[in-house]
Amino acid sequence: MKFLLDLLFRTIQLFTEPYFLVFLAVVIIALLRRKNKRKNLRIGIGIVAVLMIIFIGNGFLGKFTAEYLQKSYVNTIANKNGASQNPVIVVLGGGVVDFNHTEKLHTLSYSRLVTAYQLYHEYRKNNLPCKIVISGKGRGHTSEAELFSENFKNMGVPDADIIKEDKSMNTYENAKYSSKILKQMAPSDVYLVTSGFHMKRSVALFQTFGVKPVPQASDFIDTEITWFPNSYNAAFTFVMLKEVLGIWQVQLYNSLGLNG
């Protein structure tokens, strides 16, 4: 059953790809024309496709989606008082890019790096212990966890305070493998650092594996309402729509007992 649902969600995910939507509209119109179907139907499909492009490119859909994904995390502030005696910060990788044969963290990762370090520094300056768990393998030769670790050490974080989870290839595995590490550590608090648009799904998955993290969003994305559609609005809207679909998938799988 899980295999069929995975296949279903992968198919649905195609509808969050702009090129696929354009291709689908062109194919349908071409088939209808070839079969001499009504001209009005072809025109109607073309109008729907244009309206979708306008609605997405103008930023309207992106505004609603951004609020749904990120509103809950805008004002989240970590509790850095003495009550947390054994906190752990979990940082989720944002990808690796290979530029000119040199592997570097994706641009999304740097806001997560800074947010995690700021939180870590607040504890350490008050002489409170704090560990950082870096979660992510990525698809490069060097893992995201290793690249994060190098940056953290350059910022002054001792190696003893860094724990690398370098097996996970996606958010589901981030939660699965990190939760095993966290259960061995028995932290007083778990702070989860990732991008705002990615936080809702990440929190849901960590909760699935028995971890109730405190969300610490590192960055936020939004669209801008414009008269004319633009690629900026379209790109971020499609990114967020994929997250919404991912959240629905997590919720469905949890209700069916397929996660874990």
What would you note in describing this structure?
This protein folds into 2 domains: about 1-55 and about 225-255, no CATH class; about 80-215, HUPs (Rossmann fold, 3-Layer(aba) Sandwich). The protein is about 55% helix and about 15% strand. The protein has 9 helices and 7 strands; from the N terminus they run H-H-H-H-E-E-E-H-E-H-E-H-E-H-E-H. The strands form 2 sheets. Strands 5-4-1-6-7 form a 5-stranded parallel β-sheet, with helices on both faces. Strands 2-3 form a two-stranded antiparallel sheet. Helix 6 (about 145-155) links the parallel strand 4 and strand 5. The radius of gyration is 21 Å and the shape is elongated. The model has no long low-confidence stretch (mean pLDDT about 85).
Tell me briefly what this model is.
The chain has helices spanning 2-13, 18-34, 39-57, 60-70, 107-125, 144-154, 171-185, 196-208, 231-256, and strands spanning 87-92, 96-99, 102-105, 131-135, 162-165, 189-194, 214-217. With 260 residues, it is α/β, with parallel strands linked by helices.
pLDDT averaged residue by residue: 87
CATH topology of the largest domain: Rossmann fold
Helix proportion of residues, in percent? 55-70%
Total DSSP helices: 9
| N/C terminus separation | 15 Å
Q: Which structural class do the helices and strands define?
A: alpha/beta
The largest sheet, given as strand count, sense and whether it forms a barrel, is: 5 strands, parallel
| Number of β-strand runs | 7
Which homologous superfamily in CATH is the superfamily of the largest domain? HUPs
How much strand content do the residues show?
5-15%
Spatial shape: elongated
Q: In the CATH hierarchy, what is the architecture of the largest domain at level 2?
A: 3-Layer(aba) Sandwich
Low-confidence stretches: none
